[in-house]
Amino acid sequence: MSQATYCKMWADAQKDLDILLQKEREEFLQPETNLGKVSKMLATSYIQYMEIFRSLAAAYDHLIHRQKRAAIRPVLDGVMGRILEIKMEMVKLDNSECQYLDDILMELNRPLEDIEIPIPKYFIEENLEVLQQREKTLDEILLNAGLLEQKPVEAMTLPEAIKLIQVAERARQGRSRARFMKKIYLEEKRTTKQEEQTGRSPDDAATCIQKVWRGYVQRKRIEKMREEEMIFLGITLPPHLEAASSFQKFAGKGKALQGDVQERQDEVSFKDKLRETEGLHIKETLQDQLSQCFTECRHITGRFPDYPPEKAGGSKAIFSEKTPEQVAEELAAKQEAEKAEQKGKDEKEQKEQAKEKKPQKAGKKVEDEGWKMGPSNFLSILEEGSSQFKVFWQNRDNESDFLQDHDPELIKEGKREEVEEEIRVQVAELMEEKLRNLKLHVDGEKVGTQKKGGKAEKAGKASAKKKIPEMERDLTPDRTIDSLYQELAEGGLLIKAQAVNLSDYIGNYDCVRSSLRGTGAQPLPSAPDVRQLVALYGILPLGSQMVHENAPLVKSVLLAGPAGVGKKMLVHAICTETGANLFNLSPSNVAGKYPGREGLLMMLHMVLKVGKELQPSVVWIGDTEKMFSKAAPKGEEEANSKRLGKMLPQFLKALKPKDRVLLVGTTTRPFEANIGPFCKVYQKIILIPAPDYMSRFALWKHFILQNGGAFSSLENLSCLAQVSDGFTQGQILDVVQTVLSELRLLQMPRKPLRTVEFATSLARHIPVYKEEQETFEVWYAKTPLGRAWSTALAEREAEDGKVKKGKGKK
């Protein structure tokens, strides 16, 4: 699609966003007691935000204009963050990670695919060079350490060698024959030339030249006429626009790297020109404003004012449009307010604690007021982005901008603020010195330097009294990040992530699950729900720094389910989609490395330090239930595992909102762990069941086609999906790869595939029985979210019972 199409897509998304923001101001800020209506409002906003997110992501990925991309980026991040906030509200309201959105989608006339979360390409593209260099470095370290398996050189068979020799010999014979024929042709041509030189007259030669020249002129004339006709019909562009068209065709591949470099150079030149042309005027204006303010303050108060400290805004406090009286009053009021705040802090805290001790009254107020949307960190960003779009981009003519060049006026506005800030700092130093001289010579005051040493010493003593947590101490101050990175890679703790995308997790929506809505059973996620939750809690926050800092913080995620449902694949997909480093702290991988408590502390410190410096990072713990096992440790390895499990809360506490580090645990037997500490470590728990019928149908079809097979009818696939009930994705893939061997693929043209072949191989695997699946569901009911679901269900049943009794009495 053309650039104009994506500009229109951006404009339509901004228009829909304005309507949605206005709707939120009217609905979400008003208390609502009907929880059903609240759930519908949240689900509708969630789907609409998802559509806006998809449009903005497509426009941002394909637009060439850097300034347009810079205008879209904060809005795109704000929409992502708003989706996470609404999802959190939906989880709190429903006490479940899975919501039934089928009815809302039908009302909005949207397909189920509209709630699939797109992954923005800029997560990888903007850091592509860094990621490629890091991958190359990791490969070299692993190869030198002998941890990277090289592809074995396959020996050539005898038929292949004979065929290769035959091809080379035939090629040699062809080349020799071509040389022989060329020699004969040149000899014949030489003889004809000699005959022409002796036999032709000058008139014949002139006629030949004229014929060639007239033919050349006529061909050029016809070619020009055809070009003019094509331009007239609108099939091709004029020559002066042809360069712009070719640039647009290949812009998606290179992302206009040369244009980006040229624009950066232009930005620097704009800044230098502004400094040369307007710098002197800005400096004189600021000095005149400060001098006038000093004079007026002395005329009113009888003395020169004190220069505002940097904490109070420095010279910015004077540059604001205020009178000298207001500036002097504000400086005095701030000093008094700071003293008053320190005295009144204790009284306010005591009052707040006294209010918190009355939960029953607070609960009644909440019930009376009803549900109300919590504060948002992204609405202000979205509103600001919408206003900037209306001012700068809404009425701009995009069709005439074929080259998609930058707008110099926008660059000047941004650079002018930077120039003013630089000059303000220089002027502040000069005027502060001038104020000291005025006080000394006019008022006779001696202004000494402020005693900052005492305050610094007190602050140093106060900070020294604070105890620094173990995980936040720098245990390796003398080592570089590269050396720590190399040690972790050589120790097998930093591994290479497999190139797997989230879309490779195959599965369709289960249309039958909506029938379980009235039974009161906890809804289990299907494959699309799993993809959605992994994208929301793992990929989007790790991919965007602004989203991670402002969205509801999720530091840890647990993927629980039977063996073969794709838990490890999802971990690698998170790393692939975000370009994150992958640290493997599984008990089996950590065994024998960094023994004792001090060793484990050093290991976690190194992982934390490297993960923060080279973020985003994913810390993966496979078989994480072993760290929280109910049984007593039998050996040193199990003792180290449990010791590491006790350190994980401190590890998570050391992670701040600015640190894009995610702890991901995978487990096949979560019911063997102590539920209390287990759930304290992992904030979000995603239970992944065995695939349903629709997902199994899609899996069989995808795996068979991927491995070179083909079915004559869909009835065979339907039969396989029915027979494989209870089998996991990994087992289905293993069956397909076993059946579709090289020999079987060669036999396919004369011997089509049959269902019996897959069923025979499938019988060798053990499925996930109903009892095992129920064990997972019982364990999930004991988690915080599962208990909240059970409590809410019991309250609804009690209310329904009261209503029925009341009707019976009547």
From TrEMBL:
Residues 323-370, 447-467 are annotated as: Disordered. Residues 557-671 form the ATPase AAA-type core domain. Signal peptide: none annotated. It holds the Pfam family IQ. GO terms for molecular function: ATP binding; ATP hydrolysis activity. PROSITE patterns: IQ. It comes from the Eukaryota. Residues 331-370, 447-460 have a biased composition (Basic and acidic residues). SUPFAM superfamilies: P-loop containing nucleoside triphosphate hydrolases. PANTHER family: IQ MOTIF CONTAINING WITH AAA DOMAIN 1. This is Dynein regulatory complex protein 11 isoform X1.
